[in-house]
Write a structure and sequence with these properties.
single chain; globular; 8-stranded mixed sheet; alpha/beta; Rossmann fold; 414 residues
Length: 414
């Protein structure tokens, strides 16, 4: 099949869409990627790309076509310009740079923002090919949950935009089954919705027994290490995480390690100082995805959290599958589907979203468990990951959906 992938984010940025492209290429499909300039999460175009753009025109044999993009930078205005610059240039230059090419299916990777799907909608019409949209972030629900948009009227406008996009998709893939009802509210077409969860990235395929522990963890040797890895943003509810750490400030044998970066990182750094947590809470910075197994190996527990909002109760955070694959106990401050996964797997301990008191209690409980019980949680985690989030199985399913959508679209087309 000839597949066009439309995504605002792509290699060398670290997103699962990269593996979709490499896997489809490995299965013999011809893949073209329409994307922007790599600048996530730091907000500036990657130095290696700026130095040699020609080195980033092909990825595992797929051609990568990039349109201009305003880097995210810092602040809400810059972020908004970043979102709309991809829409503008994707719709203006995308069709021109793809002129003369035919496609059997279009796949759109839709984490925030939903606007990134607009070039794909336009190309669906121009190329007369079915559009499959992978919804990882529900709009307008997420905008309201993180406080980015508070006006009911503005949220209504975003809702109409979402409906416009969903109604022009041939299949809509939700990252959790709880996404179905919100998706179908806007699409008005339940038959178009499919379940397509996130898997653990290829970087986590390595056996941790063969990985050397990250050198950055050496100063924390002997402590019980609770590790948060990933985006540091509003949705992850760091006020609750820091409140739990503050309740355990006297436990110098428990270290909270934050590996990552994001829009709330400076706030977190300032709060660690203000709350006098510098002896137990440590920010280790952002590191390449390929190094994460080395950090996970040295952790005693892996922490995942989302704010106490209905939209986040529907979400399975992307890091959950990576955590499960690492074979370490999970600490989940989550509601809804994400907590259900951890409990079903027997892979760790959970507490309600936003409950810092309960999180502190669960950290104490996990730290006090015999080592063999924590090891059993890790074994359960890996087994559950293999059965529910197997990458080859999921991408094989995507391949079948693309083929069926192509055949159905061709049948319907006059």
């Amino acid at each position: 099949m000839r597949v066009l992938v439309v995504s605002q984010y792509f290699w060398p940025e670290a997103f699962r869409v990269n593996e979709i492209v490499s896997e489809l290429r490995a299965r013999g499909h011809e893949v073209t990627v329409l994307t922007g300039l790599p600048n996530y999460p730091g907000g500036q175009v990657f130095d290696e790309y700026a130095a040699e753009p020609a080195a980033f025109t092909h990825y595992h044999g797929a051609e990568v076509i990039r349109v201009p993009l305003r880097p995210r930078g810092k602040g809400s205005i810059r972020l908004l310009l970043n979102y709309w610059s991809f829409v503008f240039w994707g719709c203006l230059l995308g069709p021109w740079r793809l002129r003369g090419r035919a496609f059997d299916a279009i796949f759109c990777f839709e984490t925030s923002p939903i606007t990134s799907a607009l070039p794909a909608v336009l190309l669906r019409r121009i190329k007369q090919a079915p559009l499959l949209l992978w919804v990882l972030d529900l709009w307008p629900d997420t905008l309201s949950a993180v406080g980015m948009v508070r006006s009911p009227r503005a949220l209504g406008w975003v809702g109409r935009l979402v409906a416009f996009i969903y109604k022009r998709c041939d299949l809509i893939l939700g990252q959790s089954r709880s996404f179905f009802a919100p998706i179908e509210r806007w699409s008005q077409a339940p038959e178009k919705t499919r379940y397509f969860p996130q898997w653990a990235e290829e970087a986590f395929d390595r056996d941790l027994a063969e990985v050397a522990t990250a050198a950055e963890l050496a100063p924390h040797h002997g402590a019980f290490k609770v590790m948060f890895a990933g985006n540091i943003g509003d949705a992850q509810d760091f006020p609750a995480i820091l409140a739990a750490a503050q309740r355990m400030r006297d436990r110098k044998d428990v270290n909270w390690l934050i590996v990552g970066d994001g829009r709330a990182a400076e706030w977190v750094r300032a709060e660690i100082t203000r709350r006098r947590l510098s002896e137990t809470v440590f920010m280790l910075g952002r590191h390449p995805l390929e190094r994460m197994p080395a950090f996970f190996k040295g952790a005693d527990a892996l922490l995942v959290s989302l704010k106490a909002e209905p939209i986040f109760a529907m979400t399975i955070p992307g890091k959950v599958s990576a955590y499960l694959s690492a074979g370490k106990p999970l600490l989940a401050m989550l509601d809804g589907e994400g907590a259900t996964v951890v409990n079903e797997a027997g892979a760790g301990l959970t507490c309600p979203a936003g409950d810092s008191v309960a999180l502190a209690d669960q950290v104490r409980r996990l730290a006090s468990l015999p080592e063999h019980e924590r090891l059993a949680m890790g074994v359960n985690a890996q087994a559950y990951c293999r059965s529910q989030f197997h990458r080859d199985t999921l991408i094989g399913q995507l391949e079948q959906w693309m083929q069926a959508a192509h055949e159905g679209f061709r049948t319907r087309r006059p």
